Every structure is written in structure tokens, then in C-alpha cells.
Amino acid sequence: MPYVILVAALVLLDQGVKFLVRANIEPLGSVPFLPHILELTYVKNTGMAFSLFSEHTWLLAVISLVMSV
């Protein structure tokens, strides 16, 4: 049960940060988060890591579905 709560909290945190980024940062724009240390940059990635399959998202969906089953 503690894992379910942890996973739910992490998913909510992830979705909350994504919402705030979409609402407050222009695409390809950056906002300093910790000055001179860390900044948030709005970048869209429609594929997997390093934009693999970004031109073939349907194939990525099929592979993900097959692996889930």
C-alpha cells in the first residue's frame, strides 16, 4: 500500500509540473529555477528517449501496447 501512495504522489507531482510548464513557459523558452544552477526549459518530445520514433508515434504506441500485454 505505501508504494501505491508513493506512485500516485509522483504521478500527481509530474503532471502538476507539466501543467505549470505548459501554462507559464513558451515552447523552447527557459525560466531560471535555481539561479545559475538550474533552469526549466519547455521542450516537446513526441518519441522515446532522445526522440527515437518521433516520426513514427503509431509504431511506438503499438510496441508499448504489445509490451504491456
Summarize the structure.
This protein is an alpha+beta fold and 69 residues long.
SS class? alpha+beta
Percent range for β-strand residues? 5-15%
Q: Would you report the number of β strands? A: 2
What is the helix tally?
Answer: 2
Please estimate the helix content. Answer: 40-55%
Give a written overview of the molecule.
With 69 residues, this protein is an alpha+beta fold. It contains 2 helices and 2 strands; from the N terminus they run αββα. It has helices at 2-24, 57-68; strands at residues 30-34, 38-41. Strands 1-2 form a two-stranded antiparallel sheet. A hairpin with a 3-residue loop joins strand 1 (30-34) and strand 2. The chain is flat. The mean pLDDT is 87.
List keywords for this structure.
69 residues, 2 strands, two-stranded antiparallel sheet, alpha+beta
What's the structural blueprint in terms of helices and strands?
Layout: H1 2-24, E1 30-34, E2 38-41, H2 57-68
Antiparallel strand pairs: 1-2
